[in-house]
Amino acid sequence: MAVRKEAWPEGCPAWTDLMVSNLEASQEFYRQLFGWEFQQADPQYGGYSNAMIGGETVAALYPTMPGAGDVPHQWLTYLAVGDAAATADKVKEAGGQVHVEPMQVGSYGTMSVFGAPDGAAFGTWQAGEHTGYTRVNEHGSVIWNEMMSRDYERARVFYTDVFGYSYDDIGDDTFTYATIKLGDRIVGGIGMLDENTPAEVPSFWGVYFGSDDVDASLARVAELGGRVVREPRDSTYGRMATAAGPDGEYFSLISAQRPWQA
């Protein structure tokens, strides 16, 4: 387990949230799956509700916003930035799109949402009072973030141009994958979606939540009305599986054998 109170370094995954169609139902799903407790949703901020473990923030849920239309329900990864406006300029220069211009959220911080050239959505968070995750690397909290792309080489160039990422290739003949580094620090992964990926699956940033027992957690997902997307399997980095929640949102489960640095 790791608790971090200060803002995350520039370019590091710092937060994740999910737009849901039924806030109370989704809260109950994740409460029973991970033991999350929820701060009371604040109408001033669209019913945004932080999820907590032991009083520390791990994620957030919020109800579908008016006018959202066909925006998909998916966990959104936010990358830490020190200057949201300057980052927005870099995104544009690197060929990305601005979906939500930098927007101050009271005294909590400044958020933006972008689209990379391969279509993957991601957010940025310039911390104020809300620094992002304050608990990671344990059951029910984020352990890993990865970017899976249909245009792998272009994605690597884009994130290097915007955030200064470097990469260590760890793939082989069966898959293309690299760790994302900021200096000497590993902060996530980037991989290529292969030809077996259904055509309707776009490039995306994925989130992995820790589990003390991946098999039991996946069975619990099904009991709670979610769906098993990929059965548990062992890897060098721990046992993992992929599931879908009440709105079909994908997320992965992984044992915390090799947690990322906090």
Any descriptors?
2,3-Dihydroxybiphenyl 1,2-Dioxygenase, domain 1; Anthracycline_SecMetBiosynth; 262 residues; 8-stranded mixed beta sheet; 18 strands; alpha+beta
How is this structure best described in words?
- There is one protein chain.
- With 262 residues, the chain is of the alpha+beta class.
- The chain is built from 4 helices and 18 strands.
- It has helices spanning 23-34, 84-93, 152-163, 214-223; strands at 2-3, 13-20, 37-38, 49-53, 56-63, 76-80, 97-105, 109-115, 121-127, 135-136, 142-149, 166-169, 177-182, 185-192, 204-210, 227-233, 240-244, 250-254.
- The chain has an 8-stranded mixed β-sheet with strand order 3-4-5-2-6-9-8-7. An 8-stranded mixed β-sheet has the order 12-13-14-11-15-18-17-16, with helices on one face. A two-stranded antiparallel sheet has the order 1-10.
- Strand 8 and strand 9 form a beta hairpin.
- The mean pLDDT is 92.
- This is Enzyme related to lactoylglutathione lyase.
- Residues 12-127, 141-256 form the VOC domain.
